[in-house]
């Protein structure tokens, strides 16, 4: 048998392709330098063995492109009592080159029968003949062997019957449960496929490039409803009372976007101005929390249709709150699934920041209906084309649809968050190789999301919003129902630019940007591509060093590395070959005109037309670079902040605070210089800027508190309370004011109570007692709710009461706040109890375990406990979450990356090494080790300065 199979492989042509291309014209798949058939000749052993011992005819992780799917007919029957499903499918495929086998993905499915038929091939006209099915679980693939070679350019229909258990975790077709008000536990069945889990629900060509149409049928009991990507066309009644829902055929789409759900949820609905029916589904007792999401999604869908000038192509859009969900949300076309806290808004317990979150997640997933669903990246190495755009569109859409949320003022945080990671050597380029499912999952990180969004924002600022918008519309229209890669985007953006350029104003830039050199820069399509290659194919972030010499500005670029100073021996090597095309912007004391320049070289000189007192680069922090002012530069800016900070734009003040502390980490500035800069904050009129400054001081506080450096901890506490006293004392305990007034209230009171500020503790204790006395009925202002619970959780009675309320609460927003409060207890046995409940997954759901461990590790009394737990229960945790998944990465980095001593570093290193021996290879491990080393260096270098500065300041 093995022999015949070997022969079979020998005789056929196996097509090869290489679309995982990162560098233009250069294939990054070395194994494809010769065709697989040649390789087979050289080394027959290169083909793996299937589970039955026969040779499996394919040895790549990527599927062959010889056979491509056109249409799937799926019939699924989940049984919510026995917790399994039986199913059958018919896949219509096109054979592009003659072949004797079809390889497709399948994971943990029991294949009952597979057969093949064809209208176009006379040899296969008769009812399907049973096919041999080989399975190669290491690659999650099956191969169907056909008796006679399939012919090129003909269509065939593959029929497969299969079954499986509903999955236990959060991937594939899995079960989720919820408790009703009456205390009954109910089960639903739900799918979550991205990136590579559609293969757990049905055998398929599970790669984004294989787009097809899907006709889905679901069998269910009458007490349930079924939902899928498309509207239901009809329901037929089967023998025994079962119902079968038939859904309209989908548009052409990738497998990871397929979704279906069987549940007993209820909904609220509305219609957009273009006639799309939008519904929000939730478990019946949570219907009252769905109204905000309906309002927001109607508004946002209208916005996107308008903004992209492309209709949402489906007749309906459902958004559904799933009780057990691994990530925040998933953009399945027409049936978006959400974690409850990402969709539901409870006016009694959801705070301003909860509202911002829900709106942001809805905006993000709706943006994917275009970026991702309509136009999909060719392969996962460019997932940023989905996620970076969706994150970028959060900003664009919220600015217009919800200006009152003032989201614009926090966008720079999106960039600051990723700069932390990107300024470590272990970062990676936006477009990165990804082969295995684990590597693919790891691509869903801050680099793809945040850096992607930040470089798009930088490019938009450079091209002007209108030109950029035209370019992306061009891209979306051109690649609709197809796949794209980076170059397609750059091409659409530059071509569009050229068109509008000649048509009207003669400029590709916003009006204020008509510098002649910038204009020349974009004339050539190839240059935009070249420029963007420096941001997407190269890791890291540049530092622009500015030196003013009379009327000249000397600019220099280098790679910005936090934690490595110029004096360190490795600095030179880490700098080699890094160069960006940086669109820099600046204004000076002489006028607020925005000047532009593209810094393409290592060094450059600009001439100022007038003498100036100061110069500020990176206007509105729209650029993805850090700026250092040499000579008197920083002193001039600090003087300016103290004298009249409003001469600088608010977002520039935020940027200065960010950069100054980054430069301390990189050894370019001393900490006292940065701390001196914060002295102006007492007069700061912009709340986001004030919060940015406070954030750094708090960060230092937590660092010294964790390390038990008691003199500095005490003095810093004193400084914070004294310095921010005017702000703390003027806060009311009422939900009032603008979004930023409310954010300020939450942040400042949280800090005051954390630092044991007596008036804060007193007020919170009073509210907590009243709440307990009212049996949890009293409405506490939502923005201080978490603070009140946290203070209440410090007594055993309060803690126990909160845990009881946790079980009873129907609001995810409230439950999150309670869980956080419980995790701030100073009693280790209580913290341990929480972890046990989280591991058990009943009272505290498994989906919340990562956030719980993260919160406990943040608590100085819990940090060691959480870390020890993770080490000792690693294999248990791996049974719950996939290596490389969001939750697992949160757990690992959440319980380690704050460490700041050599002993801790050594311990973490040893643990990670022991994992490597088990075959783990998480990217994140290196990042964590680097982050800890950075903390160690920071403390060594800056603790004495901090200590001294505090003595002078208080
Ligand atoms: N496409 C992702 C969901 C996803 C995440 C799939 C990771 C596979 C791996 C979705 O659009 C997403 O980005 N969700 C975010 C929420 C959003 C606000 C950024 C999430 O789950 O955190
Ligand atoms: Zn996304």
UniProtKB/TrEMBL annotation:
Belongs to the peptidase M1 family. Its cofactor is Zn(2+). Gene3D superfamilies: 1.25.50.20, 2.60.40.1910, Neutral Protease Domain 2, tricorn interacting facor f3 domain. GO terms for molecular function: aminopeptidase activity. Its main location: membrane. The active site is at 365 (proton acceptor). Zn(2+) binds at residues 364, 368, 387. Binds 1 zinc ion per subunit. Residues 69-257 form the Aminopeptidase N-like N-terminal domain. Its EC number is 3.4.11.-. It is found in: Membrane. CDD domains: M1_APN-Q_like. It comes from Odocoileus virginianus. This is Aminopeptidase. Keywords: Aminopeptidase, Hydrolase, Metal-binding, Metalloprotease, Protease, Signal-anchor, Transmembrane, Zinc.
